């Protein structure tokens, strides 16, 4: 039978609507595992704690609710820190439960003991450690509230072994936490409306977390009625339909120079939801200082001091501002030429992919994906030069179709795809992964097979850590070191796990291989053999090194 404290903790999860938790089992939280067994919560056992934490983070992005992960003490916690870092950087609500040594052993260097407040203090919004007399249910309620409130992020709850089987007397009924979103002030809305009305060449930049399908629909409606070109920040491309005539591209790595120029030339820049950190700000150079003739408005629930020179700051989620703006008449000005020019810049930048060395043309691979996949297909990826192809040349057409780490974490794509395939079993899930990126968490393909998570991994194999090699050649030409990789046969690896596997060495082979993988009843891997010379869409390795 589940012990009372563990049962109370799981009851609190159920009260918050938790229907799935990701874990790697460990002896330090066996009581909770036992309570989970008959709870109705789908418990997914991953292969490594970093993968489990990334699955929980990705699940939170899809549901809008805190993702839940359980790991064991010591090495389990340190492994899981990779996913905690993603949640912190991406502003994703997540609660990580970590086993801990018994309270009588704390501070004595016990087996696998870690001070979690020190370990996670710089990443998590809060670190709890249960003690005798604490109500586990109340701690869970507070953890969920903190994870979702303001700027969302991860919360860690440590579970000493001896606390898991004891429960104080006379506990009150569980009350799920409710996070109330701040509304937009009427006077602030009036001021913003006046700025929008007066602007001749405005630009809207959307990003951040906590969006919903309705908020994204409001964003499109506002872009149309106010005649605004819309850009999105790094790896938030699902926030605006790329086929829409108002879409102007993304502020990411390798920004379209024309888009940057247009942002700098705008007389009103409205930043919605994004902290506008290093990547979208292009190394803290874009929008970092006042520009003559340009007004800057920042809407964010928590980062109200991000732009000291902002002309207006609204301390709320963009959804509240967009919802309020739908009740206000649109722009009296005709800005159609400005919108069309921004769109033309995007089309010129991302329309026709360039030819690259080798028999496999990644541009045509992406174009095949664009035509073969339904609009609701989910694309996941980790980090690496390979991701440039999907970010620049794919067309994201709806909310909930992209799972990618703004933290730039390698290894994210496969765990995220597992979470997506389990959460959305009727949708196609494609993971883009480099050969190095895949091998960070590729063992989670086994998790996909075990739980019937139908996903397709495109492993882009150029035999190196391509991004690092690119930087290496730029700084130390022809002195490459420690960036080569000897890879397995990834298609054979898929078959060894019980999945579908195929090798793709030519452009012509990709479409039939994709069709076969989509028709299979098991997870699949397509091993794409990319010429090492094709280091980026516009640069060869030899040109980088000057050889």
Biggest sheet strand line-up:
2-1-3-4-6-5
Mean pLDDT: 94
Percentage of residues in DSSP E strands: 15-25%
* Structural category: alpha/beta
Q: With helices defined by DSSP (H or I, 4 residues minimum), what is the helix count? A: 20
CATH class of the largest domain: Alpha Beta
How is the main sheet built?
6 strands, parallel
Shape: globular
Give the total of domains.
3
Low-confidence stretches: none
Summarize the amount of helix as a percent range. Answer: 25-40%
The CA-CA distance between the termini, in Å, is 69 Å
Instruction: Report the strand count.
Output: 20
CATH fold category name of the largest domain: Rossmann fold
CATH superfamily (homologous) name of the largest domain: Thiamin diphosphate (ThDP)-binding fold, Pyr/PP domains
Q: Which CATH-level-2 architecture of the largest domain?
A: 3-Layer(aba) Sandwich
- Rg, please? 24 Å
Architecture blueprint of SSEs:
Blueprint: H1 4-15, E1 20-23, H2 30-37, E2 42-45, H3 49-63, E3 67-71, H4 75-90, E4 94-100, H5 116-120, E5 126-129, H6 136-148, E6 154-160, H7 186-198, E7 202-206, H8 213-225, E8 230-233, E9 247-251, H9 257-265, E10 268-272, E11 295-299, E12 312-314, H10 318-325, H11 336-350, H12 362-372, E13 378-381, H13 387-393, E14 402-403, H14 413-423, E15 429-434, H15 435-441, H16 444-451, E16 456-461, H17 466-475, H18 490-497, E17 500-504, H19 507-519, E18 524-529, E19 534-536, E20 539-540, H20 541-545
Parallel strand pairs: 1-2, 1-3, 3-4, 4-6, 5-6, 7-8, 7-10, 8-9, 10-11, 11-12, 13-14, 13-15, 15-16, 16-18, 17-18
Antiparallel strand pairs: 19-20
